[in-house]
RNA sequence: GGUACUUUGGCCGAGUGGCUAGGCGCCGGUCUGCAAAACCGUUUACGGCGGUUCGAAUCCGCCAAGUACCUCCA
C-alpha cells in the first residue's frame, strides 16, 4: 500500500514546483514558528523517539507516529530526500530511582518468565502491525537501542573525555552542575536548573550520584539484572537518554534537521540528549525540535502511569468499557488529524463517532469524485484549492484546516454529482489530483472498503436479488420488496435506494 | 511549591485585531410506496471583570477553573 510513496522517493529528482521557502514549523527550542531550511538540502534528516517495547501500543503511541508520518510525507512532497529515523527502545529505561533502578524490559521478562528479547520481539511486531493498520509509513531506519551498545559506550567515553561525566562504583553519571556552568541545561523546557542545584545539594550523601539532577550514562547491573553488556566501567547497561544521542548521530550525523517526540519527553529526556550531544560532540545537534501534544481522556493525559490508556487493538475491536463500538484504524488516524498536533485532543467515544461519520462521508465523496463526468465549463471555482491546502500545510502542518478545505470541496463534488453545478474537464482533473495528493498521499487516508468479498459470483448474486426487488417495486409488490431489503439488512448489508436503481455495501 | 500551557456554540475542534473554519448532532427541505441512506440548507460561540483600539475570541492586566512537566510515560 505504500508502494507509490516508495517509488516517489526515487523519482523526484526534479523538485516539484512547491514553494519550499514558505514551509514553517514550530521549533520548541525558540518557541516560534520558523521557516524550515534544511542544513543540507535537498537532504533532510529527522529523528523521532519511538516506542519502548514493553507493552501494547496505545492511542498515545499513535499520535507522534501519525504526526511525524505527516511531516515525513509532506517533506517528501516538497521534494526533499528524507532520512527518517525512529528508534525502538528495548533497553535502559529505569523503572524507579536510579539507585534501585531496574530495566523495564528485564522486569517484565522476569515476571513473565520470558527472555527479554522475546518481549521485545513480541511488542515490536505488535507495534509494527498497529502502525501498518494506521497507514503510518515505516521510517527509513528503525534502530534498536540494544543493537547500538558499542556506539553508546563510545558516546559515554566522549563525554567522560570532555570532562562532563564522572564514574562512580561502576556507573557513569552526567555532571549537570558542571555542564550548566558552560551551557544552559534546561534551555529546551525553559528551566533554570540553578535553583534545583541549590536545593538538592545536601540530599546526596549516600548516593553514587553527586547531585540528584545528574543522570546515568552507564549503569552497573545488579546481579539479578539480566540485560547487561560489557563496558570499560562495569557489566551494565546504557542510561536511557543515551540511545537517541548515539543513534541519531550515527545515522543522521552530528548535526541534523529535525528531532521529534511527545511533549512529555521534553524534560528530562530531550534536555539530557541536548546536554549529551553538546558535551560529547561540542555541538548543538538539532536545528528544529518538534513536539506533539498529548491525547487526554476526560481532560487528563492518557498514559501508562495513570492506567487510563486504551490500546490500539482495543479500539480496533471495541473491547473496552469506554468504547461504545469498534473504531477502524482510519477513524483513529482521521480523529488525530482533525486536531492540530500541538493541541491536546480529548478522546471520547462520541468524538470518535463524529470523526468516523465525517471520514466516511469524505471517502465516499472521494470515490464519487473519480466517477464524476466533466461538462463544458465549470460553474464553480476550484482553482485555489491546491494553494489553500499547501498554504495550510506550510503553516506548521495544520491538518484540521486542510481537512476543512476538503470538506468544503466535498460539498462541491456532491453538487456536481447532483447535477446542480458543472465542472470542466481540466477543473475535474485538478480536483481529482488535489484530492489524491492531500487525502491519500499527504494525510495518508485510505479507503477501508474490504476486498474480502472480492468474489464476482457473490456480487452478482446480491445484484440479482436486488434486481428482483427492483422488479417487485415496479409492480408495487411491497411485500417482496421489503422482505428482500429487510433480510439483507438483517445480514448486515446496507441497501440504498437511488433514483433509478440501488446501491449496496457488504457487511 | 517552581515552570509552562489551556478555557471557543449541544459535543469535538480551527482561528492572534475587522471578512460564515470544518466535522458530528439538532432542525428544515429534496428524493422515496414506506423507510433508510444520500444530498442541500440552517444553527453565530469565544471563562469572568477591567483596559488598549474606530473595532478584540484574537493585544494588556487582574480573577476563576483546569491540564501538563518537574519521577517512567508518546
Provide an overview of this structure.
It is a single chain. The chain has 507 residues and is an alpha/beta fold. The protein folds into three domains: 42-292, Rossmann fold; 297-442, Isoleucyl-tRNA Synthetase, Domain 1, CATH 1.10.730; 456-505, no CATH class. The chain is built from 17 helices and 15 strands. It has helices at 3-11, 59-77, 104-112, 116-133, 149-161, 176-182, 193-200, 242-252, 266-281, 312-317, 329-337, 349-371, 385-394, 399-417, 425-442, 456-474, 478-490; strands spanning 24-27, 32-35, 43-48, 81-86, 165-168, 171-174, 215-220, 236-238, 256-262, 286-292, 295-297, 300-301, 345-347, 494-498, 501-505. It is elongated. The two termini are 23 Å apart. The relative contact order is 0.11. It binds one RNA strand of 74 nucleotides through helix 2, helix 9, strand 12, helix 12 and helix 14.
Amino acid at each position: 500500500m505504500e508502494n507509490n510513496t516508495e517509488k516517489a522517493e526515487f523519482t523526484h529528482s526534479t523538485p516539484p514546483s512547491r514553494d519550499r521557502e514558505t514551509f514553517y514549523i514550530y521549533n520548541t527550542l525558540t518557541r516560534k514558528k520558523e521557516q524550515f531550511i534544511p542544513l543540507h538540502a535537498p537532504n533532510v534528516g529527522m529523528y523521532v523517539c519511538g516506542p519502548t517495547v514493553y507493552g501494547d501500543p496505545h492511542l498515545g503511541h499513535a499520535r507522534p507516529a501519525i504526526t511525524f508520518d505527516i511531516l515525513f510525507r509532506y517533506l517528501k512532497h516538497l521534494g526533499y530526500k528524507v532520512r527518517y529515523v525512529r528508534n525502538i527502545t528495548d533497553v535502559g529505561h529505569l523503572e524507579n530511582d536510579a539507585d534501585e533502578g531496574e530495566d523495564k524490559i528485564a522486569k517484565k521478562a522476569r515476571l513473565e518468565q520470558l527472555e527479554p528479547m522475546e518481549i521485545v520481539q513480541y511488542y515490536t511486531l505488535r507495534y509494527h502491525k498497529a502502525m501498518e493498520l494506521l497507514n503510518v509509513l515505516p521510517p527509513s531506519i528503525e534502530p534498536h537501542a540494544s543493537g547500538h551498545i558499542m556506539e553508546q559506550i563510545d558516546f559515554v567515553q566522549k563525554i567522560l573525555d570532555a570532562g562532563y561525566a564522572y564514574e562512580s562504583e561502576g556507573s557513569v553519571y552526567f555532571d549537570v552542575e558542571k555542564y550548566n556552568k558552560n551551557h544552559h541545561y534546561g534551555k529546551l523546557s525553559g528551566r533554570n536548573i540553578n535553583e534545583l542545584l541549590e536545593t538538592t545539594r545536601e540530599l546526596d550523601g549516600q548516593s553514587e550520584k553527586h547531585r540528584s539532577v545528574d543522570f546515568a550514562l552507564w549503569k552497573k547491573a545488579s546481579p539479578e539484572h539480566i540485560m547487561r553488556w560489557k563496558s570499560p566501567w562495569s557489566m551494565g547497561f546504557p542510561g536511557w537518554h543515551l540511545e537517541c544521542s548515539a543513534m541519531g548521530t550515527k545515522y543522521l550525523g552530528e548535526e541534523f534537521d529535525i528531532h521529534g517526540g511527545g511533549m512529555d519527553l521534553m524534560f528530562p529526556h530531550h534536555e539530557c540528549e541536548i546536554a549529551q550531544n553538546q558535551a560529547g560532540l561540542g555541538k548543538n545537534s538539532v536545528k528544529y525540535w518538534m513536539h506533539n501534544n498529548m491525547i487526554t481522556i476526560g481532560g487528563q493525559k492518557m498514559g501508562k502511569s495513570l492506567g487510563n490508556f486504551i490500546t490500539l487493538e482495543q479500539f480496533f475491536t471495541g473491547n473496552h468499557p469506554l468504547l461504545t463500538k469498534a473504531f477502524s484504524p482510519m477513524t483513529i488516524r482521521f480523529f488525530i488529524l482533525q486536531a492540530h498536533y500541538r493541541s491536546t485532543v480529548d478522546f471520547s467515544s462520541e468524538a470518535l463517532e463524529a470523526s468516523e461519520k465525517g471520514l466516511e462521508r469524505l471517502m465516499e465523496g472521494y470515490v464519487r469524485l473519480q466517477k464524476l463526468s466533466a461538462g463544458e465549463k465549470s460553474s464553480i471555482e476550484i482553482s485555489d484549492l491546491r494553494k489553500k491546502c499547501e498554504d495550510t500545510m506550510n503553516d506548521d502542518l495544520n491538518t484540521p484546516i486542510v481537512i476543512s478545505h476538503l470538506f468544503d470541496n466535498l460539498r462541491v463534488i456532491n453538487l456536481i454529482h447532483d447535477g446542480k453545478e458543472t465542472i470542466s474537464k481540466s477543473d475535474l482533473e485538478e480536483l481529482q489530483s488535489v484530492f489524491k495528493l492531500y487525502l491519500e498521499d499527504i494525510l495518508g487516508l485510505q479507503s477501508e472498503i474490504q476486498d474480502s468479498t472480492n468474489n464476482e459470483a457473490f456480487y452478482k448474486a446480491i445484484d440479482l436479488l436486488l434486481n428482483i426487488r427492483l422488479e417487485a417495486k415496479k409492480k408495487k409488490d411491497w411485500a417482496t420488496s421489503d422482505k428482500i431489503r429487510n433480510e439483507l439488512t438483517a445480514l448486515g448489508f446496507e441497501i440504498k435506494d437511488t433514483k433509478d436503481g440501488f446501491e449496496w455495501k457488504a457487511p
